[in-house]
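On clarity, I found the account of how folds are encoded harder to follow than it need be. For illustration, here is how one protein appears when written out as sequence plus structure tokens:

:::
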Amino acid sequence: MTEQLYLSDCYLKEFDASVVGVDGRQVELDRTAFYPDSGGQPDDTGIFTCGTGDFIVSCVSKDKGRIVHVVDREGIRIGSGVHGQIDWVRRYVHMRYHTAAHLLAGIIHNETGAVITGNRIGSDGTRIDFNLGDFDRDLLKGFEKKANEAIASDFPVLISFLSREDALKIPDITKLAMGLPESIKNVRLVTIKGFGREACGGTHLSSTGEAGRLEIYDFENKGKNNRRIYFKLKCDD
């Protein structure tokens, strides 16, 4: 099992680790700050530095607790020490969008009861699917306004961990239609103080004010009782 450093410190940009597995260009470490593609959030990219030089990390995935990093060339050996550095600009954008997505999804859930049926965070926009029957532009503008009010409130975002048993006692512990997967025994809780809390394994801001201004720029019908909302974030200069 790879120690997932990003779970407790989303702002960790660099770290040291030991190589515990190599298969060609696929490298497994004993610990990592690189986020793997999961939960709708894209993976981190960056650089590994070790005795044989620098290696570009182009892809990171998760497999049964193992975090696998794909580098641009072979040459890393088992037992080697590695210094990892994530592409912080890319990561920070994903953090902004992920926290903003929690705000928007929480508002929509509170007002309509809808849950998330799909989502994908992007560097220039994010989409979220909800099991909604219908909505219109006026309703979306209301959601947008309330999300921006939550961002402007600069609520602190806190990370904690608890047992699955205790987590399931919390109402609406997840806004996902699929619920909390049975495989998760220790739950990571993301709490936006003054707003809400839910189980989430993604990376987040330390306060909502860092997100920037949210704008819903499109929406579409994706089938019966399934509506997709697209939003982007802007920084006010």
User: Anything to note?
Assistant: The chain has a mean pLDDT of 93. The helical segments are 88-112, 137-152, 164-167. The longest strand covers residues 53-63.
